[in-house]
Amino acid sequence: MHALQYEITLPADYDMEIVRKRVATRGHLLDAFPGLGLKAYLMRERADGSPVNQYAPFYLWAEQAGMNTFLWGPGFQGIVEDFGRPVVQHWTTLAYDEGPATAEVPRVATRRRKAVPDRLTPAEAVERALERHASEVRTEGVVARAVALDPRHWELLTFTLWADGAAVEPNADRFQVLHLSAPGRSAIRPGRTW
C-alpha cells in the first residue's frame, strides 16, 4: 500500500471557496476509483490559523496500478492544468487501522512528519512508530490512522482522520476534510503491511 500527497499552496488572499466548490463538484469522481483505498480531500486556510492556504489531498492506494492510472490519467492532469504540476510526495505504508469512530464521517485530518534520527536504525524507528500507532489509533474520535515511511528522505509520516473538528494532535499539521472517497477502504488490511 502506498500513501501519496501533494500540496498546492495558494496565495494568502486566495478565495478558498474556490477549493470548496472544486471538491463539491469533482470529489465524487473518485468514489469508485479502482485501486484506491481512500482519498481525503484536505484543505487548510489562514483564516483558521494555518500558516498557509493550501489544498493538499491525501491518498492511500491499495494497488499500485490504481495509483499509476490516476497519476498518468485525466484525474491528476486536471490538477496540473488548474494549478501546475505539484511535487507528489509518497511513502510506503507501514500500518493502517480503523479507530473507535470508524463509522463516523471524518471532519479533520492531522499529519505528522518526522525525520528518522540518525541514532536509530531504520528497524528501531519503524518499531517505535508502530508502537505509538497501536496506542494512538485507540484514541477517542479517531476514524482511521496510517503510518508510512519515505526511505529516500528517512521520514516517518503519521496520518489520522478524526470525526470531531475539535481534535488536537501536538506537533501535527491540521486540515479540514472536505470529502472522503473511500472505494477500497473496507479492503485495506488492518495492522502492519508485512
Write up this protein.
The structure is a single chain. With 194 residues, the protein is of the alpha+beta class. It has a single domain, classed as Alpha-Beta Plaits, CATH 3.30.70.100. 22% of the residues lie in helices and 37% in strands. The longest helix is centred in the middle third of the chain and has 15 residues, at 122-136. The chain is globular. The chain starts with a strand and ends with a strand.
Mean pLDDT, to the nearest integer, reads 95
- Known CATH architecture: 2-Layer Sandwich
The portion of residues forming beta strands comes to 35-45%
Order of helices and strands: EEHEEEHHEEHEEEE
Helix content: 10-25%
Q: How is the largest sheet built, in terms of strand order?
A: 1-5-3-10-7-9-8-6
CATH topology: Alpha-Beta Plaits
Question: Could you give a short account of the major beta sheet?
Answer: 8 strands, antiparallel, barrel
Structural class, please?
A: alpha+beta
Overall domain count:
1
Low-pLDDT residue intervals, each spanning 5 or more residues? none
The number of distinct β-strands equals 11
How far apart, in Å, are the first and last alpha carbons? Answer: 10 Å
Principal-axes geometry comes out as globular
Layout of secondary structure:
Elements: E1 2-6, E2 8-10, H1 17-26, E3 36-44, E4 53-55, E5 58-61, H2 64-71, H3 74-83, E6 88-98, E7 108-115, H4 122-136, E8 142-150, E9 155-162, E10 173-181, E11 191-192
Antiparallel strand pairs: 1-5, 1-6, 2-4, 3-4, 3-5, 3-10, 6-8, 6-11, 7-9, 7-10, 8-9
